[in-house]
Amino acid sequence: MTESPSPSTPCPCGTGRPFGDCCAPLLAGAPAAGPEALMRSRYSAFTLADIDYLDRTLAAESRDGFDRNETETWAREADWRGLEILAASTDTAGGRGTVEFVARYRFRGKLFAHHELASFIHRDGRWIYADGVINPKAPPRVTAKVGRNDPCPCGSGRKYKVCCGA
Predict the structure, then answer these.
(1) What is the C-alpha to C-alpha distance for residues 103 and 85, in angstroms, rounded to an integer?
(2) Cα separation of 151 and 153, whole Å?
(3) Does residue 143 surpass a pLDDT of 80?
(4) Phi and psi (nearest 5°) for 158?
(5) Mean pLDDT on 102-106
(6) 90-100 pLDDT, tens per residue?
(7) What are phi and psi of 75, to 5 degrees?
(8) Residue 66 half-sphere exposure, CB side, CA atoms within 13 Å?
(9) Rounded to two decimals, what is the model's pTM?
(10) What stretch of H or E contains 53?
(11) What pLDDT digit, counting tens, does each position of 155-166 carry?
(12) 100 Cβ partners below 8 Å, 6+ apart?
């Protein structure tokens, strides 16, 4: 693990809050208030190469794909450039949440933007990372097909072929 920032330093996760009031308590073992807080703390853990924290906040069923050595190499060698939260949702009653984010970093001379839709579950009083979809795509746009002799969707009362379809 690399040296932690001082408690008064801005938190690596990008909230603008001091590290000591933001992610430091979570990295020390406090439970995250929700999926977004956990995602931010996991980003901070990557910047600090705190692989133990990343392992502790990973769902057991997702550990098969977790390579500690590879993750540590990536975390230590990357020059972390910032975290942008695009969207976050929490279903407290269902114990599930998602966070869509972009983590920017430089690795071995190349700039990367890791875009992910991460899923979280609430288990035993703690939020944990379940899995994620990299480069999520929006669902395809669905448009209604209008036949030539159907009423025009503009509401004119005329047939489509003599109105907007002309």
Answers:
(1) 9
(2) 6
(3) no
(4) -90, 165
(5) 97
(6) 998 999 999 99
(7) -65, -40
(8) 19
(9) 0.82
(10) helix 51-56
(11) 898 988 899 887
(12) 85, 86, 87, 88, 115, 116, 117, 118, 136
DSSP state for residue 14 in the 8-state scheme? S
**Can you tell me the mean pLDDT for 62-82?**
93
Closest CA to 2 of 45, 55, 54: 45
Q: Check whether 84 has a pLDDT greater than 80.
A: yes
CB-based contacts of 22-30 (< 8 A; 24+ apart in sequence): 27/53
**Is residue 49 within 8 Å of residue 31, measured between CB atoms?**
no
Buried b (16+ CB within 10 A) or exposed e, 106-136: eeeeeeeebbbbbbbbbeeeebbbbebeeee
CA 57, 98, 110, 64 dihedral sign is positive
Structure tokens at 127: 């939020």
CB atoms within 10 A of CB 74: 15
In the sheet where 79-91 sits, what is the strand order? 79-91, 96-107, 110-123, 126-134
pLDDT class of 83 with cuts at 50, 70, 90: very high
**Chain CA centroid to CA 92, Å:** 17
Higher pLDDT among residues 64 and 9, named by residue: 9
By DSSP bridging, strand 126-134 and strand 110-123 are antiparallel
CA–CA distance, 84 with 3 (Å, rounded to integer): 23
